[in-house]
Amino acid sequence: MLWTVLYFAAVYGIISNMNGTFFGNIISVAYLMLFLASGYFIAFNVFPREGRLLHLTLGTAVGLLMLMWLPALFSFVLGFGVLSQLLALAAALAIGAKALFRGVRLLLLPREPALKPYLWCVVPTVVLLCVLLCTHVLPLNEYGGLSSGQSTYGDMCMHLGIISSISRQGFFPPEYSIFPGQAMSYPFLCDSISSTFYTLGASLRFAYMLPMMPAFFSVVSGVYLFFEDWFRDNKKAVLAFVLFFLGGGFGFAYFMNGIASDPYNFTRIFTAFYETPTNLVGENIRWVNVIADMLIPQRATLFGWSILFPCLLLLRRAALDEEDWMFLPLGVMAGLLPLIHTHSFLALGLVSVPWFIRAIYKKQSPKKFLLYGIIAVVLAAPQLLLFTFKSANSFLTLNFNWSNETDTFLWFYVKNLGLIFILLPVAFISAEDKDRLTWLGILPLWILCEFIQFQPNPYDNNKLLFIWFAFSCGLAASFLIDVYAKLDGIKGRRLLAGIVVIAMTLSGILTLGRELVSEYEVFSEGEVEAAMFIEENTPADAVFLTTTNHNNAVAALTGRSIVCGSASYLYYHGYDIYQREQDIRAMFEYPADSAELYEKYGVDYIYIGPYERNGYLLSHIDFAHLELIFANDTAAIYKYQ
What we know:
This protein is mainly α. It has a domain at 524-639. The protein has helices at 2-15, 22-46, 52-78, 82-102, 115-136, 152-169, 189-199, 204-209, 212-231, 234-246, 264-267, 290-295, 299-320, 327-335, 342-362, 366-392, 409-417, 419-430, 433-440, 443-449, 462-486, 493-517, 525-537, 553-558, 567-570, 578-589, 595-600, 610-615; strands at residues 137-140, 146-148, 397-398, 452-453, 520-523, 543-545, 561-562, 605-608, 627-631, 636-639. Helix 24 links the parallel strand 6 and strand 7 (561-562). The termini are far apart. The model is unreliable at 1-19 (pLDDT under 50).
């Protein structure tokens, strides 16, 4: 199935040829597959007693880990170029070959999850994710411009800028191309993984999408296998899986009022911008859908979870099922998380603490548990000290009930999580001891998120809270399956079960329906033409004066630096951009008096497009003495130096 997805990725690469070549796309697919194959051989060698599904899932996670880290390690020394990518590939092949030749399949019959429920859950979900990805990342629209979906309209442009600037400028570790001179306070490996393919000659669109597809598989398969391994019951695993990816609260009720007399109150779900049953800020509905609002737009979350959920499976088995030999590989995988997704590293650490205390109390391999922690901390420490802590110290604040603005504590969770939250207390009480123990491991994470805000945007706490949500979906699903079994022989139990499941998933289903039909132009045809000119005719390290719109064609599509980017990105990364915004206004409106500012920011080119014309009082005669190097109906580019 994974290879089928990658085949269609190659097909998309052939038809999406913006600033890339067919040959570069094919090279990129081959490069990715070699890393994934190497990861599979490593998983096969390290986990010989496991079944094929776990080998494939862990192998994908390990392959992605190497694909993010090996090019980065060489790039720290050599810069981000083709040589670093080739050396990374050689290292991956050497590690994979060693694992392959050392691996000896034990003559055991490992326990394998039932294949049919696994396929019915994993395959449609991965296909849905890939469809949304391909329709949400720069498809060519009927007007010759490039589009996005609803969920990618915001974050995608930032990621495109990081991907293209790392590749084109070659500076590593990267600086912000939208805030030149500042080190990136963002876990950049989730984007440098695509910079690898852009450097190898793939189109920007294809480079963006390609590594996300196996990451989708790693997350989706990891979630299912985590639930199946926890309960050893495929019915509970299936329901928990459905609740995690589709579960939501009672947000759908806000769209049912007066539906007979005014259908627009319902149909606006599919037409309005971010008015869905899982994201309706005016009604304090903030518990978003995992697929639409986390995995598709948020690359750090996607690649973090692609490692985190396989790690959670290993941790639960090592800590609670006493398979302590898993602690060693777990420590290595955990220690590589911070520069991919710091929230995932924190979540794994917080889950580990109560289970470590239990291991000490029960005297169940506390030394090996401690070794796991030491390995993870030793590997993570340089990442945290050199990158994360430089910005995170200013992020941490006290804030009770994270994103709740108007409701009481309980009502906020009741209407946002619906029956999943309502059932939690009774599900916990009726659960078996091992299931209660598993859920209690995640409880400190939820409590911490209710009191500490980890980033300037309180909404971002959901990157941690959704891990608690996954465990809670498991507990609620187990309870519902047990209740359903006890109702055996009672008339109408299937109807009742259907009503309950619909009530728990309707908000998520409607949200995904909205995502499937959403389309917004993010770059016009004229902006794309200007970006292509910049790519072909200006130095990679050139600095452009533009406005600070988030969908900035120069920053996103060319990899060039601009004086300052959008506050919607930089503010939430801890930067105050007010002074740069004022300086940009002065340089556009009073260029003759702003020579010192042009020199201060090293401006090489001036880009004037629709956002610049609408945002500033421009007098083109002030730029008449400059060389006009490009012009179309949309944009003009002047050479300043």
